[in-house]
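User: I'll paste a sequence; please echo it back and then give the predicted structure.

Assistant: Echoing your sequence first, then the prediction.
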Amino acid sequence: MNKPSESKICQSCGRPFEWRKKWEKDWQQVKYCSKACNQAKAPTKFKEQILELLNKRDLDKTICPSEILDDDDKKDAKKMERVRSAGRLLAHEGKIEITQKGKAVDPNDFKGPIRFKLKKR
């Protein structure tokens, strides 16, 4: 089999990943970039919470990912990364934009503080 040229988006972390030789026979079924992502729960709950909170606000308003978490969880880096992953997945689905300093950024290539905003339709 020839190496497929397309990359995929991990259904757990939302990051793009490329074809690997070990996936040669079942590339069409591969959904996760790693064993860790395969074993982690998909951030479905966080995706729902992001959309719910954004839908309560005006269309041009944004939210900080930390607004999704309880006060106790805001210091938990792993949980914060799961919220960011949920936002990344929503951005790939075309439902939200990830912004920095008021400008949309590539969901595959951002670092530092971000905000989520509903995508205009």
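The beta strands are 8-9, 16-17, 62-63, 96-100, 103-105, 115-118. Helices lie at 35-39, 44-55, 77-92.
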